[in-house]
Write a structure and sequence with these properties.
Blueprint (H helix, E strand, L loop, with lengths): L2 E5 L2 E3 L5 E8 L7 E7 L6 E6 L5 E3 L7 E6 L4 E6 L8 E8 L7 E2 L3 E5 L2
Parallel strand pairs: 2-11
Antiparallel strand pairs: 1-3, 3-8, 4-5, 4-9, 5-6, 7-8, 9-10, 9-11
Length: 117
């Protein structure tokens, strides 16, 4: 079965950096689009970034230039590099899998990112 296990979240200071990881199993990782969504308290879940099986990336306007999504197909792992953290980046971050960009078929359990001084 498909499993997506996020890690790397935690408490960080404004201006700091974090690297989130998503270990995937149960499917041929290189054949699927992957993504990161986030949900802040009281807000709807939103797309942060996504990457196609071919490496095409897309980002939410609010994170362009600060977030970088990447994938290591040999390790079946998805990454999200987060720089210049802002308090508004505080949210639960979820790893997703889908047949193509814009589609989500599976969700991970999430990893919490809290940005506070």
């Amino acid at each position: 079965q498909v499993q997506l296990v996020e890690s790397g979240g935690g408490l960080a200071q404004p201006g700091g950096s974090l690297r989130l990881s998503c270990a995937a199993s149960g499917f041929t990782f290189s054949s699927y689009a992957m993504g990161w969504y986030r949900q802040a308290p009281g807000k709807e879940r939103q797309l942060v970034a996504a990457i196609s099986s071919g490496g095409t990336t897309t980002y939410a306007d609010s994170v362009k230039g600060r977030f970088t999504i990447s994938r290591d197909n040999a390790k079946s792992t998805l990454y999200l590099e987060i720089n210049s953290l802002k308090p508004e980046d505080t949210a639960m971050y979820y790893c997703t899998q889908g047949h193509n960009l814009g589609r989500v078929d599976y969700w991970g359990q999430g990893t919490q990112v809290t940005v506070s001084s």
